[in-house]
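for the recovery benchmark. tokens below, seq after
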């Protein structure tokens, strides 16, 4: 289990990676993932955020899997097979900026998936991203703000092979 503290919007938040962990649906705040094609990972240039991996918030009536499939299509124009990697616990227990009226629960979870891309559609830039690219996993740390939690998730994703359950 890997933990670290980050500054999100001026508040201190504790992140903890929990491999193979599935929280209850009502405390999942978002879903994200690493999408693989020919040994490379998809990055999308998100408007107002820069290069990142696909992900976002669950819409009413969606399962987490449906949400990630939708986000991967909207942001990266890809489809594929998913495997759940685990969850990042986002704890605001030590965040002085958190209160009962905050948008997120005091403890919430971001699910992470591995997608093995089966179809790449023409990139249309209709939604939240302006560009996409595929980079070797070893170069991800150069492309976005990187920390030990992302590395632990990437390691979990790399340990899985296409077709393995």
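predicted aa per position
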């Amino acid at each position: 289990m890997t933990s670290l503290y980050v500054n999100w919007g001026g508040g201190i938040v504790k992140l903890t990676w929990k491999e193979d962990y599935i929280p209850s649906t009502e405390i999942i705040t978002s879903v994200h993932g690493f999408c693989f094609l020919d040994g490379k990972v998809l990055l999308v240039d998100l408007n107002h955020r820069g290069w990142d991996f696909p992900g976002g918030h669950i819409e009413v009536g969606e399962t987490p899997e449906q949400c990630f499939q939708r986000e991967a299509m909207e942001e990266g124009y890809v489809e594929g097979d998913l495997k759940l990697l685990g969850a990042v616990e986002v704890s605001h227990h030590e965040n002085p900026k958190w209160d009962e009226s905050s948008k997120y629960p005091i403890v919430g979870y971001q699910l992470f998936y591995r997608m093995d891309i089966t179809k790449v559609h023409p990139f249309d830039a209709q939604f939240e991203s302006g560009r996409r690219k595929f980079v070797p996993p070893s170069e991800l740390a150069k492309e976005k703000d990187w920390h030990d939690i992302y590395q632990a998730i990437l390691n979990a994703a790399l340990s899985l092979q296409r077709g393995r359950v």
